[in-house]
Design brief:
106 residues; mainly beta; Alpha-Beta Plaits; two-stranded antiparallel ribbon; two-stranded antiparallel sheet; 2 helices; 9% helix; binds iron/sulfur cluster
């Protein structure tokens, strides 16, 4: 296989090599496994978008799991996965909807 390339060839300009119209932004979903939560609030404190708050729900351990702040939507999530990384109980994770995992538009 020949990996050489022609340096004289004009460099493609963005978005010539990525046609943004062929892609769509898929909103992630925040999943909270409330039974695992111990209300440490780290996900709330460290979410850079500040979209989480403590809910009124009480889980079987007696803790209040987090929820989306009223008025915020999944679209406000930066999908940084920081809540997921910082949660000591693996009680929160962010994922794109399964049926939309294929990024390319038909
Ligand atoms: S993925 Fe990032 S922006 Fe989204 S809820 Fe978690 S910490 Fe906040
Ligand atoms: S970081 Fe995890 S255990 Fe702590 S409040 Fe958030 S979901 Fe609950």
């Amino acid at each position: 296989m020949n990996y050489s390339f022609n340096r004289k060839k004009k460099k493609a300009e963005w978005p010539a090599f990525v046609d943004i119209k062929e892609w769509k932004i898929i909103t992630p979903e925040i999943h909270i496994i409330s039974s695992r939560c111990k209300e440490c609030r780290w996900c709330i404190e460290f979410c850079p978008e500040e979209i989480l708050e403590i809910s009124d729900e009480i889980n079987e351990k007696g803790y209040h799991p987090p929820k989306l702040i009223e008025g915020k939507t999944f679209e406000n999530c930066a999908e940084c996965h920081f809540c997921e990384l910082i949660c000591p109980e693996f009680a929160i994770f962010v994922k794109k909807p399964v049926e939309e995992e294929e990024m390319k538009v038909e």
